[in-house]
Amino acid sequence: MTIRPANAEDIDTMIDLAVNMVLHSVSPFRSVPAEQVQSYRREDLQSLRDILGMDHSGLFVAELDGQVVGHIIVVAHQRDSSTGSPQAYIYDVSIKAGFWGRGIGQALMARAEEFARQCGMHAIGLGVTLANHRALHFYELLGYQQERVLMVKNL
User: Fold this and answer.
1) Residue 150 in domain
2) Taking a C-beta distance cutoff of 8 angstroms, is the pair 68, 10 a contact?
3) N or C: which end of the chain has fewer CB within 10 A?
4) Are residues 89 and 124 in contact, defined by beta-carbon separation less than 8 angstroms?
5) Phi, psi for 104 (deg, rounded to 5)
6) How far is CA 129 from CA 70, 144, 148, 149, in A?
7) Domain tally, the chain
8) What is the rounded CA–CA span in Å between residue 117 and residue 86?
9) Would residue 155 count as lying in a domain?
């Protein structure tokens, strides 16, 4: 397996992968049809074309036998919403379902953390849906801790 910086030719593959994986991250409190969720995700990630190559943006892909099987999107120089402290933020981690459990996520997370350190960051954050127990457990194993909880009430 190889972890490398993404290039312009990888963007469509990254978007497709994130669109396919987003349903694992939908909160059970959101009554939104799957097609709408995926459509929004596809539209939202078009911004990857704009941030590719920016010094503070880390877009990395995992390749196995010449096939992109995962990616991570990390952006440095973000600000903590309470303290204003600079930090990196992981916006997306997606691994093709057939490749889970092979260390690809760990390798991508390690690369994102390395990128954040290279950018002078001393903290890195991410968001995860509480219903995504597999991802929560994964991040906790890597040393991530819950700092805030987003609360939602359906009206």
Assistant:
1) no
2) yes
3) C
4) yes
5) -70, -45
6) 19, 14, 12, 10
7) 1
8) 12
9) no
At residue 79, the pLDDT reads 95
Rounded to whole angstroms, how far apart are CA atoms 108 and 106? 5
Residue 147 belongs to some domain of the structure: no
Structure tokens that stand for 109 in this block: 């997370």
- Domain of 105, in residue numbers: 2-141
Structure tokens at 140: 């906790």
* Residue 41 belongs to some domain of the structure: yes
- Over the chain (155 residues), the average pLDDT of each successive run of 10 is 97 96 85 91 95 96 96 97 94 95 97 98 94 93 92 83
Q: Indicate the pTM of the whole model.
A: 0.93
The answer to whether the beta carbons of residues 25 and 129 sit under 8 Å apart is: yes
**Which CATH number fits the domain that encloses residue 109?**
3.40.630.30
**Residue type for position 17:** L
